[in-house]
Design a protein that fits this description.
The complex is a heterodimer of chains A (355) and B (417).
Chain A (H helix, E strand, L loop, with lengths): L1 H16 L4 H38 L15 H11 L10 H17 L18 H22 L3 H32 L4 H6 L14 H14 L11 H4 L9 H26 L16 H22 L5 H29 L8
Helix pairs in contact in A: 2-3, 2-10, 2-11, 3-10, 4-5, 4-10, 5-6, 6-8, 6-12, 8-10, 8-12, 10-11
Chain B lengths: L6 E5 L11 E7 L2 E8 L7 H5 L8 H5 L6 H16 L5 H30 L2 H22 L8 E2 L2 E2 L18 H8 L6 H23 L3 H7 L7 H7 L4 H4 L7 H4 L20 H28 L16 H6 L1 H12 L7 E9 L2 E9 L5 E7 L1 H7 L1 H5 L4 H11 L3 H5 L1
Antiparallel strand pairs in B: 1-2, 2-3, 4-5, 6-7, 7-8
Helix pairs in contact in B: 3-4, 4-5, 4-12, 4-17, 5-7, 7-12
The chains are: A mainly alpha (355), B mainly alpha (417).
Chain lengths: 355, 417
């Protein structure tokens, strides 16, 4: 029976696969990998919204969605379907081209960044040397989607939201960048894969201990960067209604929504990779309790939990106070800690603490 | 030179932070507000005019709908004015019931204020916590009047019914099992007073819970300290009352200064602020909830010991009992006359004010001797507060505007009337 199956597979292979040119085969395989990353990612995004509603629900003494499907498990699917079927309204005086392209500009970078994320020692789509730079570049492109959306809608609320988020994202990008400089100084590499490898050997080797201030700054900047509460001034519900995407409806809105949550997962994953030891278990054992990918996912879920927890707990920062926090606290903290790492590494015998 | 134009923006009426139907025309310099011009009237229902064409008692229900988050306090102002014109005083038990429900209403109002204020500033969870406690208080409303919001419970001369001996019980359903229902009914086994007592036992710990989320929260303080400051003199000039005035440090509370009902027999304190900013007003209201809780406890203790009449026995003003009507012709006539014609009030005019959760709520009635008022004028605290908005927000940012609207505790039912 299995012989028959093998024969069939090899027949198909000879007939369909082998005649294809080499570059095309390569492209197809890569496409397969991309799908293997994106499909679970989008599913994770959908269920992150569900997790958020459920978790915040329990924190707020209510139940959360529990009507669609068993215990509400189909709620994200229903939401997606609803948004798909809704009309996309383009305001009369909006710049149509920019209005339509803005959601794409905001989701593309948040998905493209996943290309260089190492999920395990071997599981990575593109193991490039400057992957940290690649990530930084892509996350800062995301802001264009927001600014263009706010500008193209030709609405005062959207415009205010766009201005706020432009200022916010740009200034937190700097704090984030500096925090990453600390990581690359410690790891001696810009390659995410190398950065994780440098943290091998149990949780005391993870960078969140020697780089604790940078860890905090990076994570909080990440929260600000993704426009999440308490830094959600760009879409501050009670101030400027929905901010930059106030004029969007249907799938165009859903794409902004997807981008926000994909960014959240991205930031959480990057935090885990750079500060919490990536796919390594907290304690090195001779046998494996969970496969490495599970460790990574558990850690990512743990970090994501904080995103949701913040949202249920904190009031919203005021726009100017956010800028103050970014420029006057986060950036000096990162700068000082980079200097500390530098001096410790090159002028004192304590350098090993940071490696 | 290029012309510099301010950014003019419509804030509301369809805006999540406008507490209903506030429409503000904002002139902005970047995010900084130069001028905020409130446009009101979108919820105008002509309460004062409607009252002119109805017998006195039939307008009590309209009063509930003025400030629809502190229903019974509005009724109180109205019935007090009528009682003043008639020159009657309700039985003591009725006075205690009114005070108790006034304070329940104050907690109801402050809980809604706290929830929405926090929600405006971005703290979501407080809102739902506050609504959890509001549920219980609205059950009290329901137990005495049958309605959870618009109770129409106070009457000139007392209150409509005595407090019930039993509380309505939850029943099992598809969503609630026997066990759930037993837990939900555990504090509903006794009378309404027992239920209220049980509430006052746990309410202070709930207030502590809200305070842990907000009072020392750095973000909350950054958003409220120094925002919307009103100097005491200016607060008096603007006609601010209630927590808005006390937040500025002026000791003024009608419950102490012009005691009505039995407030002079009760022991409570009036909290005042010092800086007159949003944070002080927040602290004042939080403390008022604790004080109200104490007042309720004192009333419950008194009411448990002293049964008696809850409305005057003058059947020209209050309907006779059902049983009496079945056998007494005169009682039947009284009932008929009262529910068709109502009662006439001697010629004259009167102003009565209560310390409403939001400030001084006053009702001014002119009677021409008929069974309907010649003119009713409602003095709504929110109106004076809203007219000070422009002054309070000048130079602040949009985010602060939202905090200031929250701190003013604006409800449009009473402003637009």
């Amino acid at each position: 029976m299995s012989e028959l199956l093998n024969n069939a597979v090899s027949l198909v292979r000879e007939a369909l696969w082998d005649p294809l040119p080499g570059w095309f085969q390569l492209g197809l395989v890569d496409l397969g990998y991309i799908l293997a990353i994106l499909l679970p990612l989008l599913l994770a995004v959908a269920y992150l919204t569900f997790a958020e509603r459920k978790l915040i629900g329990y924190m707020q003494v209510r139940i959360g969605p529990n009507r669609v499907g068993p215990r509400g498990w189909l709620q994200p699917i229903a939401d997606a379907l609803k948004l798909l079927l809704k009309e996309i309204i383009i305001p009369t005086n909006a710049n149509k081209f920019l209005f339509v392209i803005a959601p794409m500009l905001s989701i593309a970078p948040s998905l493209a960044a996943w290309a260089v994320i190492p999920f395990t020692d071997t599981m990575v789509l593109a193991n490039i040397d400057a992957s940290l730079l690649y990530i930084l570049a892509l996350t800062s492109v995301g802001v264009y989607g927001v600014i263009i959306a706010g500008w193209a809608s030709n609405s005062k609320y959207a415009f205010l939201g766009a201005m706020r988020s432009a200022a916010q994202i740009v200034s937190y990008e700097i704090a984030m960048g500096f925090a990453l400089v600390g990581v690359l100084m410690a790891a001696g590499s810009l390659n995410l894969h190398q950065i994780v490898l440098a943290q091998q050997g149990g949780f005391h080797q993870w960078y969140f201990i020697p780089l604790f201030p940078l860890f905090l700054v990076y994570f909080l900047s990440g929260v600000a960067e993704t426009n999440r509460s308490p830094f959600d001034v760009a879409e501050g519900e009670s101030e400027i209604v929905a901010g930059f995407h106030v004029e969007y409806s249907g799938m165009a809105f859903a794409i902004f929504f997807l981008a926000e949550y994909a960014n959240m997962i991205l930031i959480a994953t990057l935090t885990v990779i750079m500060f919490l030891g990536g796919w390594y278990a907290p304690v090195e054992t001779s046998f494996t309790i969970f496969p490495p990918i599970i460790w990574l996912l558990v850690k990512v879920a743990f970090v994501l939990f904080f995103f949701l927890w913040f949202r249920a707990t904190f009031p919203r920062y005021r726009y100017d106070k956010i800028m103050r926090l970014g420029w006057k606290i986060f950036i000096p903290v990162t700068l000082i800690w980079i200097v500390v790492i530098g001096i410790a590494t090159f002028y004192t015998p304590l350098g090993h603490l940071f490696h | 030179m290029a012309e510099i134009r301010n950014y003019t923006m419509n804030f509301g009426p369809q805006h999540p932070a406008t507490h209903g139907v506030l429409r503000l025309v904002l002139e902005l310099d970047g995010e900084v507000i130069e001028r905020a011009d409130p446009h009101i009237g979108l919820l105008h229902r002509g309460t004062e005019k409607l009252a002119e064409s109805k017998p006195y008692n039939q307008s009590i229900g309209y009063m509930d709908r003025l400030d629809y988050v502190s229903m019974m306090a509005n009724e109180h102002g109205y019935v007090l004015a009528i009682e003043k014109l008639l020159g009657i005083e309700p039985p003591e038990r009725a006075q205690y019931i009114r005070v108790m429900f006034d304070e329940i209403t104050r907690i109801l109002n402050h809980l809604l204020w706290l929830g929405t204020h926090a929600l405006d500033v971005g703290a979501m969870t407080v809102f739902l916590y506050a609504f959890r406690e509001r549920e219980d208080l609205m059950d009290c409303y329901e137990a005495v009047s049958g309605a959870r919001l618009h109770a129409t419970y106070y009457r000139p001369g007392g209150v409509y019914r005595d407090l019930p001996d039993s509380m309505p019980q939850h029943e099992t359903s598809k969503w609630h099992s026997e066990k759930d229902v037993a837990r939900m009914n555990s504090n509903r086994q006794g009378s309404l007073l027992d239920f209220i007592w049980d509430f006052t036992e746990r309410f202070p710990s709930h207030v502590d819970e809200y305070e842990t989320l907000l009072t020392d929260n750095r973000i909350w303080k950054q958003r409220t300290v120094g925002i919307g400051v009103v100097e005491p003199d200016r607060a008096l000039q603007l006609g601010l009352t209630g927590p808005m005035l006390r937040g500025s440090g002026v000791e003024w509370d009608l419950r102490k200064k012009q005691p009505y009902e039995v407030y002079n027999k009760l022991d409570f304190d009036i909290p005042i602020g010092t800086h007159g900013d949003c944070y002080d007003r927040y602290l004042v209201r939080i403390e008022e909830m604790r004080q109200s809780n104490d007042i309720i406890r004192q009333c419950v203790q008194w009411l448990q010991k002293n049964p008696g009449l809850v409305i005057v026995e003058d059947h020209k003003l209050a309907p006779p009992k059902r049983e009496v009507m079945k056998r007494d012709m005169e009682a039947l006539i009284h009932h008929f006359k009262l529910f068709t014609e109502g009662y006439c009030i001697p010629k004259g005019e009167a102003y009565a004010a209560v310390e409403h959760p939001k400030g001084e709520f006053g009702v001014y009635i002119i009677s021409d001797g008929g069974n309907k008022p010649y003119r009713v004028k409602v003095r709504a605290p929110g109106f004076a507060h809203l007219s000070s908005l422009d002054e309070m927000v000048k130079g602040h940012m949009i985010a602060d505007l939202v905090a200031i609207i929250g701190t003013q505790d604006i409800v449009f039912g009473e402003i637009d009337r």
